[in-house]
Design brief:
This protein is of the alpha/beta class. It has a single domain (21-210, 243-287), classed as Rossmann fold (3-Layer(aba) Sandwich). 41% of the residues lie in helices and 12% in strands. It contains ten helices and seven strands. It has helices at 10-13, 38-49, 61-73, 88-102, 124-133, 135-151, 173-193, 222-234, 244-255, 285-288; strands spanning 29-32, 53-58, 78-82, 107-110, 155-160, 198-205, 266-269. A seven-stranded parallel beta sheet has the order 3-2-1-4-5-6-7, with helices on both faces. β5 (155-160), α7 and β6 form a beta-alpha-beta unit. The termini are far apart. 39% of the residues are buried.
Length: 296
């Protein structure tokens, strides 16, 4: 697709949409962590469009309230719960407030995750932050939600991981290790919860346009902006990056009754990136650092 990236603005970047299945999640209650922006917000919106009542969390109160107001103005039932998933007490609070408001929980989407990309320079606090807002919080939310799902006769959980759980990337010991932990948590939880008719699956996005992947882009010059988008797109098998709505569609499938015999599964939403291996990257870290390597 030939797009004008020199003059790209946030309102022009997102061009994709999906046709909802009316009432597919009518009378169902879902929790989405990290649902104020990006991929999480896309999931919240699509669940609401298909009839679900959705509670979502976020650390920034103003952003979350703005998202909640948008959804309510559109006629959807949504509830923002402000707090940090790193805190065990908040993980319990988010579940309790959802049950207090709507009386049950059918679905959980674990999405909130600190993007901390550190390598040998990572501090103990960096490691703590990425693991306790990521896989540890995911596990806590699963443990807190499952008793209510059991009362409903079953439920479905989707954990948002990443292609970074499967590939080595320079400077990302923290983030990739934590996403790898999500992958193993997903499989183990699926085994333990199958007996309760609770399905546990995983969606692993590739490069999706979000606030994090677009950091600093809008402040760049037109030439710099165009170079950024062209290079990011060039690395993809489909010659473009993804949009939050495309991840949301995959999540909704795994939550729905169309996936009743699917559990412990990982669904890649990466435009084929992970199949390309090193062909998807212009230069490896070794090539980039060749001048600094020891010479014999």
């Amino acid at each position: 697709m030939n797009r004008d990236y020199r003059n790209m603005t946030p309102d022009k970047l997102f061009i994709r949409s999906r046709k909802p299945f009316p009432d597919r999640f009518k009378d169902k209650v879902a929790i989405v962590t990290g649902g104020s922006t990006g991929i999480g917000k896309g999931i919240v919106l699509e669940l609401c469009r298909e009839g679900a009542k959705v509670a979502f969390t976020g650390r920034t109160g103003a952003t979350g309230k703005e998202t909640e107001d948008e959804l309510k103005k559109a006629g959807y039932e949504a509830c923002f719960i402000a707090g940090d998933m790193i805190k065990e007490a908040f993980c319990k609070e988010a579940v309790a407030r959802t049950v207090e408001k709507w009386g049950k929980i059918n679905y959980l989407v674990n999405n909130a995750f600190r993007f901390i990309d550190k390598a040998k320079d990572a501090t103990e606090q960096d490691w703590y932050n990425v693991f306790f807002t990521g896989p540890v919080a995911y596990a806590r939310m699963i443990a807190n939600c499952t008793p209510y799902m059991i009362k409903e006769g079953g439920g479905a959980i989707v954990n948002i991981s990443s292609i970074s759980a499967h590939i080595a990337q320079p400077g990302r010991w923290t983030y990739n290790a934590a996403k790898g932990a999500v992958h193993m948590l997903n499989m183990c939880a699926a085994i333990d919860l199958a007996q309760y008719n609770i399905r546990v699956n995983e969606v692993s996005p590739g490069t999706i346009w979000t606030r994090e992947t677009l950091r600093g882009v809008w402040e760049a010059s037109p030439d710099g902006r165009e170079a950024f988008f062209r290079e990011m797109n060039r690395r993809q098998m489909m010659q473009r990056c993804g949009e939050p709505v495309e991840t949301a569609g995959a999540v909704l499938y795994l939550l729905s009754d169309d996936a009743t015999f699917t559990t412990g599964h990982e669904l890649m939403v990466d435009g084929g990136f992970i199949n390309m291996g090193q062909q998807g990257v212009k230069e490896t870290a070794l090539v980039q650092d060749a001048e600094n390597m020891p010479k014999k």
